[in-house]
Amino acid sequence: MNTKIVSTSLLTLFSLCGISTNCPSVCTCIGNQTDCSDLNQLASMDSILNQLPYNTTFLTLSTNNFPAVEPGTFSNLSSLLHLDLSRNILSTLHPSSFSQLNKLDFLDLSENLLVELPVNLFSELRSLTELVLRDNRLKELNPGQFKGLMELKRLDLSSNSLCCLPMYLLDGLQNLVWLSLVGNKLRTLQRTSLEPATDLQHILLEGNPWNCSCKLIPLKHWLEWTLYRGGHVDSVNCSSPTNLYGKDLRNIPMEMFRHCYPLYLETRSSSFAEGHPVTAGSPGDCIRQRYRPVSVRRAAATVVVAGVVCGVVCVLMVVTATYGCIYAMLAAHEQQQLMHGNSQQQQPLIVVKEPEQDEKEDLVATIAKEEEALECAEWMAFPPEVSV
Ligand SMILES: *[C@@H]1O[C@H](CO)[C@@H](O)[C@H](O)[C@H]1NC(C)=O
Ligand SMILES: *[C@@H]1O[C@H](CO)[C@@H](O)[C@H](O)[C@H]1NC(C)=O
Ligand SMILES: *[C@@H]1O[C@H](CO)[C@@H](O)[C@H](O)[C@H]1NC(C)=O
Description:
Leucine-rich repeat, LRR (right-handed beta-alpha superhelix), ten-stranded mixed beta sheet, two-stranded parallel sheet, 10% strand, binds 2-acetamido-2-deoxy-beta-D-glucopyranose
């Protein structure tokens, strides 16, 4: 009698909690997919999650009115591979909102109200390959925001309010192949911000107010390089300056950036500071040093080579002139002596000596020309403006 009551009440309790069914009453479960989207009721996220079996792998919590994800909310669901939190009103995430989800492959946070993200929010998501942050209100990102996402292949940052990308943002994302920055407020973008993502094949940059000033030339070169490697780049339409309004950066001939050339080397080093504040002695300095030496070394080498060539040419010219003078003096002196003595030996001397002199002068002239040609070739190979 007693045991029967206990067992029935336990059964009722279990079914209420949804433990026996493996699917929360408000959700739909098909195969391994647990769909708790569009619940249209005031269910709290915790009450739903508490009913889920620990081995849930595919969970949709989309289109509810969840305002926040509390710390450790998903800590009992470490089997999750796919988590969809899109179309909620999330504005606050705790640094450990997604801790324990080290198997998670896909995370969708699109269409929420996120303005900023905690620095270590994604740091435990070691298996994540796709992260969707589309349609939020993100203004800026921390340099280490995506640190540790070694497996990340796709990153969607479209339709936010990003004004700039931190220099280190993509560091360590060697597997990233697809990046969207569509519909943000980017005016400029450092080539060095993109360079760490060496596998990047698709980059979407449309819908930003690009300022196609001299500072965007490195980005233009990088885009051309990506296209050359078989990558895909959408249009990068300039909003300013006015003479380039509406033009696609990829198709603007370098001729239009002629005025940039004298400043180009300078721009490379100073443009770094634009966009986001970086204090002196910060890690940013390392990046600058990491990417600058090639250009600096080449420029220095060009100057040294040009100097050496000029020096050699000058020395040769002086030697030729001296040789000519001394020879002329000796010849004149000898001629004078001969004129006093035997005048018949005058002819052979001149006949024998003259071709020798011409020959030597020719040789010297040839050497000088060769040096000049060499110098030319050096400048063609490393013109200071292009050797960057
Ligand atoms: C979860 O575990 C239960 C048994 O505990 C099993 O019946 C179910 O198939 C598992 N679900 C998944 C998605 O592995
Ligand atoms: C995880 O499961 C344990 C044991 O069932 C429970 O006490 C705890 O409240 C759960 N944590 C969360 C965040 O649901
Ligand atoms: C574009 O960039 C140039 C050079 O950095 C700057 O002088 C100019 O004010 C910028 N224009 C806009 C509209 O941001």
